[in-house]
Amino acid sequence: MSEEQSAADLPLPGGNFRLMVQRMAYQGLLGLGVLENPVTGTTAVNLPSAKMVLDDLRMLQEKTAGNLDDDEREHLEGIVRDLENAYAKASETSTDEPVT
Hints:
The protein is built from three helices and two strands. By secondary structure, the chain is mainly α. Strands 1-2 form a two-stranded antiparallel sheet.
């Protein structure tokens, strides 16, 4: 018979490069209004926030150049490319107002 576990019983993941990049990308997608904010239940475009995340990912890409394995490098490159494309589209159409 197994005991039920709550979220508090499970260890938080950490120390994983791909997961860290993915968490940062999630923040960028929130800022671009692509994802719904799980706290407010709304989507809102916040281009300064999205740009900050994108700039951080670009900096990470520069600072880690030559130090990542192929899988990590490709993952980071793909995330940056996808966020750059989404940012460009959001910049063209944004009024910086919440969308519900």
